Amino acid sequence: MAQYSAEVDGVFVALADPTRRSVIRRLGRGPTSVGELAAEFPITLPSFMKHVRTLESNGLIRTVKTGRVRTCVLNRERLALVDDWLAEQRRIWEDRTDRLERFVTEEES
Length: 109
What we know:
The chain is an alpha+beta fold. The protein has a single domain, classed as Winged helix-like DNA-binding domain superfamily/Winged helix DNA-binding domain (Arc Repressor Mutant, subunit A), CATH 1.10.10.10. Helix content is 67%, strand content 13%. The chain is elongated, with a radius of gyration of 20 Å.
């Protein structure tokens, strides 16, 4: 997992912003044009494009340009990095609490 830390860091940075999380949530329903996505947010198109570039540069989405329309597509595989990291953390903390529980119960008996 350590070799992926830069990738995981980038994904978490990208997901730290509520606008970007909303874009990810919306793209979970299917591909959408940048114009349609941007219309859902009260920010200018150039500001919205910064969010799109952040998501794209961290591999969470990809964009495809057809004519004048740029369409965003969610990269679901990239979200697996977050799942893997969270599963590892959950396992570490469950092991620690299990050891603490054994320590406390053995001391009592």
